[in-house]
Amino acid sequence: MDRLDSPARLMIVSDLDHTMVDHHDPENLSILRFNALWESNYRHDSLLVFSTGRSLTLYKELRKEKPMLTPDITIMSVGTEISYGKTMVPDDGWVDVLNQKWDRDVVIEESSKFSELKPQSETEQRPHKISFYVEKEKAQEVTKVLAERLEKRGLDVKIIYSGGIDLDVLPQGAGKGQALAYLLKKFKSAGKQPTNTLVCGDSGNDAELFSIPEVHGVMVSNAQEELLQWYAQNAKGNPKILHATERCAAGIIQAIGHFGLGPSISPRDVTDFTDSPLENVNPGHEIVKFYLFYERWRRGEVDNSEAYYSSLKSVCHPLGVFIHPSGQEFSLHECIDNMRQCYGDHQGTKHRIWIDRLLPTRISNDAWLVRFDKWELSGEDLQCCVVTTLLRSKSPDSLTDLLWEHVHQTWLDDYAPKDRTTWLL
Fold first, then answer.
1. What is the pTM of this model?
2. Cα-flanking dihedrals φ and ψ of residue 128, to 5°?
3. Which of 131, 211, 207 is nearest to 166 (CA)?
4. Subunit composition (predicted)?
5. Could you report how far apart the first and last alpha carbons of the chain are, in Å?
6. Each residue of 136-166: pLDDT tens digit?
7. CA distance 219 to 223
8. Angle at 39 between CA 265 and CA 275, to 5 degrees
9. How far apart are CA 222 and CA 206, in angstroms?
């Protein structure tokens, strides 16, 4: 919560499965479009929150499968766990809130009396969440009777049914909406309440998010029946809630534009960067734009022309230095020469590059130190390096003519490529 010194310009709170992540998009283009938009326009002054029904175990599995960004805050297990940053520091205050009128053993005892309830895997059973599978036609009656029995035992619980099969028993104070309300209260007490908050979801366990009064909301086009029914009964006609016409992350981008929350054109949708007006200019634009061009160059999707080659060299300082993850030192112009020789070497392959955790620090009136993770997928080989870059403007206080002066890369643990000689930049 302390990464930003002032209120976030935008805080996005998004469900993962079938909202941020489209499991029917084998190329992951939707989430890659969002990634490029976020890192180039929002990361430096905004907050990204993932709010998921997944446990920590399943959340980590998804991160290995999909090109997900690192969130600033993670809400897991249907709003029963809140953690911060890449190291996922837990919020102990939230645990204290959830312990009120909650007894896990009693919930297990009472729920075991229902043959209709099939326990989910052990990874999904958490200190403040007990999860089952139940057939759709039996869910309503089971929910009603179980709630009555737990109330008689002195517990105050919340039962959430979502996805047409998942039933979660939580403390009454838990849930995605309550977790968000708790976070907003913390931000407000610190004098850092986000200027705008956008919540994003597709299923029943996301409905609470849309009930927070001060937020904008987007139901992606592929939203499930239970969320659409909730909307029809509780929020139809609410101008702050949009039912997008786009799926998953593309629907989130659509909502940013619809509500006027900031730039909504992803750099991945720009075909000619030289003719692209920029909003909210910051060094992130330069980083994302460069590596998108690098990806397209190696996929053979841009012209192999002298003009493009010259433009690449023009953004590198004549004396610029590149420290390869192996420790070898090259001139940046030498790296561009090597890159020219690799034009189209990934044409027709599953080759994608995305940037994560891009954080710029101004160190003088004409220089920025920028740190980020650069991910590169080549076929099934996923590689990543941690990058520190010095960018210097041609004139003081300008952000439109930045030169790459120094680039230093180190391998991220467990993500060095098998053939390290193929790593160019």
1. 0.92
2. -125, 25
3. 131
4. Homodimer.
5. 33
6. 999 999 999 999 999 999 999 999 888 889 9
7. 6
8. 40
9. 13
